[in-house]
Amino acid sequence: MVEGTPLPAALRPHAAPCRHWDEATVHRRLTADPAGYLAFARGYLEDLAAGRARVQMPPKLVLDDPPDDRGGGDFRLMPCVLRGPLGTLKTVKIIGTNRAQRLLPGQITVGELLVLDGAEQCVTERFEACLLSSARTGLVAALALMALAPDVRRISIVGAGRVGYYAAIYCAAAQPLARIELVDADARRAAGTAQALRDAGLPCRAAAVADPACDAWLLATTSTRPFCAPPPAAPEVVLSLGADAAAQRELTCAWAGRAALWVDSADAVNYGDLLAWRRAGLIDDTAPPDLVALLAQPPAAGPWRLFVSTGCALYDNLTAAYLLGGAPWVESP
Predict the structure, then answer these.
(1) Which of 37, 130, 291, 300 has its C-alpha lying 20 to 30 A from 318's C-alpha?
(2) Residues of 216-246 as b/e, b for ≥16 C-beta within 10 angstroms?
(3) Rounded to an integer, what distance in angstroms lies between the CA atom of residue 152 and that of residue 20?
(4) 299, 302, 303, 304 alpha-carbon torsion, rounded to 10°
(5) Which domains does the chain have, with CATH numbers?
(6) What is the pTM of this model?
(7) What is the pLDDT confidence band of residue 189, given thresholds at 50, 70 and 90?
(8) pLDDT digits (tens, 9 = 90+) for 248-288
(9) What is the Cα–Cα distance from 303 to 256, expressed in whole angstroms?
């Protein structure tokens, strides 16, 4: 056994005080009080809109694998720094799209969200990020739905996976829904997820197809082909949550340039349907208003309201802040 040379005591590094949050803990904390999570999110975003907080957030960096017989994959680097009334919170998520699924079958999202000490830059918190990513996407959907359709009572969620599950929980906490319909290509998964949501007290059932008579559709799929056409084939309010990579699509081109459009972040124009529309010359490169702007100024009722989420580090940072109890992380400079 090779032991190496002795390291002088003065050169020995300290072990960083780092806490690990597993998936089960993240899930329990994010579903224990859905209304509280929503209220925290609104306050966090109101601080941004009012200028009480500032965010430093470059576009996410996506590194794609070359396509192969498994469809390829990617990993993404998503940093965000929030400087606000409670201090400075630094986060970075390293997340992957796992299409091979040999080590982790059935899990397309893998990775971790890291919290860095605001002054010394060492990692102090490690959150497993599969369920966290899905939950924060569901939270974003609920916030957008409240602003776009405040009188909504019946929704259809296309995709009964993790994002669809959390979207149902937070939408039901945000508004008094009369019915949630879950649609999935896998009828057994739709039935199982719907049953779990009913057991949690939600008015949920599985459905064979999404009903255009619903007040809104939420699309949470891994589709690579656009399938959702505008009214009358769909409701006037549609939220697309699944097309978060260049090769993924949920919305037909007939929406482009005709629907009032909002996004989770300006970076959304670089992925999925909006990227395809830009490449086809159907929309320009101008970023639509984001969720912060939408919440600050909800639209008057009107036809064809579309919200597109492709994933944003801001909402990872927000979720870390909530999980950490909203406490000061380090005094603001």
Answers:
(1) 300
(2) bbbbbbbbeebebebeeebbbbbbbbbbbbe
(3) 38
(4) 0
(5) 19-131+316-323 (3.30.1780.10), 137-311 (3.40.50.720)
(6) 0.93
(7) very high
(8) 999 999 999 999 999 999 999 999 999 999 999 999 999 99
(9) 14
